[in-house]
Design brief:
mainly beta; 10 strands; two-stranded antiparallel sheet; Jelly Rolls; globular; about 140 residues
């Protein structure tokens, strides 16, 4: 788990969500999350909000993740993805296209697969989170 490292956001600051992640703490204060080095973005006690560029070359830096602190929301702006869910009663794949959204239930392992390049907004609960590392390329 990446622990919170964040910066104050100055009033009136425009934030490029293609390169930055905003954290919204449970106390209602928004923070700019510091970049992480590998693995999922840093987390805080609240929600992180990001806009990811999805393509075959730019997929998640993990082999699946889950969020024990709450549900995650995925919103497709453009492009298409398949979201693989590992549910207690069997695996399920959800197809998302432009303008569609889904909720990933608290604690469910999931992985995103690119079908058509595009943009995805994620609203992710924290502070906890688990991810499976990518297999080594040795």
């Amino acid at each position: 788990m990446n622990t919170e490292t964040s910066l104050e956001i100055a009033t009136g600051t425009a934030i490029d969500l293609t390169t930055s992640v905003i954290g919204l703490r449970r106390d209602g204060v928004a923070r700019l999350m510091a970049p992480s080095s590998g693995g999922p973005p840093r987390r805080l006690d609240g929600h992180t909000i990001g806009l990811g560029m999805i393509s075959a070359d730019n997929m998640p830096p993990h082999a699946g993740e889950r969020h024990p602190d709450g549900d995650e929301i995925l919103i497709m702006v453009s492009g298409r993805i398949d979201v693989h869910l590992e549910l207690d009663d069997g695996d399920e794949t959800v197809h998302l296209g432009p303008g569609e959204a889904m909720t990933i239930p608290k604690g469910v392992w999931h992985l995103i697969h690119c079908v058509e390049p595009g943009q995805l907004i994620n609203i992710t609960p924290g502070p906890s989170g688990e991810y499976r590392p990518l297999p080594s390329s040795d």
